[in-house]
Amino acid sequence: MQSLSGGELTKLFLAVGLARSPDLLFLDEPTNHLDYPALEALRQVLCQFQGAFVTVSHKPFFLDQVAQTTWELSATNLQVYGGNFSYYREQKQLEEAAKERAHETARKELKRTKATILNEQKRAAQSRRSGRQKALNGDMPRIVAGGFKRRAEAVAGQLKIKHEKAMAVATQNVADTKVRTHKAASIQLEEHGKKHRQLIEINHANLWVADRLLLKDIELCLLSRDRLAVAGINGSGKSCLVKAILGLDTTPAVLQGGEVRCADMRTVYLDQSYALVDRTQTVLQNMQRANPALNYQLLRQQLGHFLFWNDDVYKMASVLSGGELARLAIAMITIAEIDLLILDEPTNNLDVTTVDQMVEAINDYQSALWVISHDLDFLSRINITHSVQLKHQTLQPTLYLPSQMLPYQQCLLEDH
Ligand SMILES: Nc1ncnc2c1ncn2[C@@H]1O[C@H](COP(=O)(O)OP(=O)(O)OP(=O)(O)O)[C@@H](O)[C@H]1O
Ligand SMILES: [Mg+2]
């Protein structure tokens, strides 16, 4: 089991679950690690499934294909939307726009209330002044002047109460209609030197894992500005190739024969299981270990950007949810200076908003990028300049780049 690739493990769990012919199926992030043929198979299984199913997923592309109803779970309630993810997104946008309009109206009303109060106060002061003036000029008998004064005071008191009430209602309306903005992680990637140079060159090498030949006659060249996408079905050797290039001693994967040249470079590898996060340490300890030069305040600040606040930072990494683990792993790598950033299925477990932030950060980042992902939504948005696939034990360029989503997906689905 331990040697199974990420996708192989997901497929095994799905196969075991479906074999029990359940009436009700709960799927928690079922698309994680799945390759394109497996995603297509899962889509078909779910579309033909006779029972009911509930799937938790952050993948719009997949949800649109399989779901008829969308539930939105927030900190305060669960709201049901009668449609797929795109329908849900449209409805959310309409709701947000209506909320903003209501808030705008409430703010205008508050402004109007303030102006009305000011006018009324001015008029009341004016009339008090003219009453006082008449009394001073002796135009009014003293007894009448006294009555006027008492009445004016009573009216002023009533007016004050009326104004306070109106202000309280208008202010409350503004507060009630305020749109609570959803906090999202902010991601920044630092890049190292800007020089254009060759980082990796492989000529005619073979990739082996534990006596098994995974890839033969590999030819690959990566320059410092390249943004490479690596595709291939589950178990084809995408993760092993990276591990062998980096020479990680935790894997039996090796490159043999031919020539393999790697420049002296700062590489950050975010692997599929977030192995860089030590599960026996807390969030803060992990962050400290990854960035020993940073002081406590900066570490807390960086963790705050990734939504780890207050006592969150003292949580053990072992209790973090999938998304939290991903956020911590990204927090740990993003302040280090990088020549080559390698992301292995980075969007698994990440919610839609965090994926958006990640896309933005990757698009700002200028150094070399190596991305392994089956998430077409994500891949199509990160300006991939080179694309290869692992197929029939060879590494070959794809005909299309992921930005051309459908033909790219089509060519990956062929011949498997
Ligand atoms: N330590 C190991 N010992 C034996 N076999 C291994 C080991 N690690 C990986 N493998 C096997 O090597 C093959 C390639 O694994 P790898 O993790 O590179 O696949 P992958 O292309 O990254 O797949 P996925 O898309 O599922 O992540 C798989 O069949 C896997 O079972
Ligand atoms: Mg892998």
Structural features, described:
- It is a single chain.
- The protein has 416 residues and is α/β, with parallel strands linked by helices.
- The chain has two domains: 92-177, no CATH class; 190-413, Rossmann fold (3-Layer(aba) Sandwich).
- The protein has twelve helices and 16 strands.
- It has helices at 6-19, 36-48, 60-66, 85-137, 142-177, 238-246, 283-290, 296-305, 322-333, 352-364, 376-379, 405-413, and strands spanning 24-28, 52-56, 70-73, 78-81, 190-191, 198-209, 212-223, 227-232, 254-256, 259-262, 267-270, 337-338, 340-344, 368-372, 386-391, 394-397.
- Helix 2 links the parallel strand 1 and strand 2 (52-56).
- Helix 4 packs antiparallel against helix 5 (142-177) and helix 7 (283-290) packs parallel to helix 9 (322-333).
- The model has no long low-confidence stretch (mean pLDDT 86).
- The structure holds adenosine-5'-triphosphate (ATP) and magnesium ion (MG).
- Magnesium ion is lined by residues 5-6, 238-239, 272, 344.
- Adenosine-5'-triphosphate is lined by residues 3-8, 33, 35, 209-210, 214, 232, 234-240, 251-252, 272.
What is the residue-mean pLDDT, rounded to a whole number?
86
The CATH class designation of the largest domain is Alpha Beta
CATH topology of the largest domain: Rossmann fold
Question: What ligand species are in this complex?
Answer: adenosine-5'-triphosphate, magnesium ion
The second-level CATH architecture of the largest domain is 3-Layer(aba) Sandwich
Measured between the Cα atoms of the first and last residue, the distance is: 24 Å
Structural class: alpha/beta
Question: Care to count the β-strands?
Answer: 16
Low-confidence stretches: none
Order of helices and strands: HEHEHEEHHEEEEHEEEHHHEEHEHEEH
Neighbour order of strands in the largest sheet: 11-13-14-8-15-16
- Report the sheet-strand fraction: 15-25%
Q: Provide the number of structural domains.
A: 2
